[in-house]
């Protein structure tokens, strides 16, 4: 006899990155072509030694680092985020409007659990970040696809037409995963006004904010004193400080909203891990210059990707930023077949666009996501040369 299975869970797709790892395990790589892994959006190198030492010191010397802590995170970390975000975006953000979570994925699930239940709807631009879609599926929330324009930026007017009586939120990721698109500040502001006027939450996932190419703040929403009535901002410490395994993220939202979030976080995790929080705090206080160097390197790799694809016949880069290139391929095959063939022929592991789009959506079948953050300039040169050598039927 099999045990019951929640049908919403059964209907949720399996984690795509695990699926890609299975392809890797099943595929014999071509001789002489070492793997170029552009499948995952995570730094592979450890954090700087001084940050690891700060973690070690806390582990050895601070007994509290091994105990449960406050559900919404360490007060010093909440205050540091509030002060730094205020400095970066302008406006007023209080420590009570910051919650620390076990990563930005948990931050998303927590705020969504406070906003939408089974039968409600949220708008997700397509292509979407698959874990956002997966949470909606598990929770019985209808993820309404919001198509993007040719520049991979969604249109507020198109979003307005998709809002129904059960719509609870609009979700934006900028810079975007999977497309790399940096949404212009005026577009983000228009989404804010739309959400505010229709009584919806605007969830802004800025996991990749540290790698935005623009010198100016990416939006001015926090400078509007009414922001807590509409905006829910999400952040991850995973990328900028290379802390993926420590699971530290943040929510900035109205304090009343965070009182609801606290119920979720207490139930699923009790509190965020202490060592990760120590690391995030130490990183923010000591690594600004190092993070600036990381950003410069990522922007240089982005420039190398743009230059490389400009010389690749038939390919078209429709988005490129943060860790990602979103590339339309020239082949008469859906992107999953292209990705598998690219692994087998050229030893490149990348994710097909189908993993980021509703079934049958041409935006997914026609493109691949290349997460280039771990590949240096010379590796990007090899990547482009290998893509040029792919032997597949052209459309
Ligand atoms: C848009 C986006 N949000 C959230 C996350 C997850 O971040 P974290 O490691 O903090 O859970 C990622 C990681 O890839 C992401 O791309």
In short, what is this structure?
By secondary structure, the protein is an alpha/beta fold. It is 42% helix and 15% strand.
Structure, explained:
Helix 4 runs parallel beside helix 10, helix 5 crosses helix 9 and helix 11 runs parallel beside helix 14. The protein is an alpha/beta fold and 395 residues long. A seven-stranded mixed β-sheet has the order 2-8-7-6-5-3-4, with helices on both faces. The chain has a four-stranded antiparallel β-sheet with strand order 9-10-13-12. The protein is built from 14 helices and 13 strands. The chain folds into two domains: 139 residues, Aspartate Aminotransferase, domain 1; 238 residues, Type I PLP-dependent aspartate aminotransferase-like (Major domain) (Aspartate Aminotransferase, domain 2, 3-Layer(aba) Sandwich), CATH 3.40.640. The mean pLDDT is 97. The structure holds pyridoxal-5'-phosphate (PLP). Pyridoxal-5'-phosphate (PLP) binds next to helix 5. Pyridoxal-5'-phosphate binds next to helix 5.
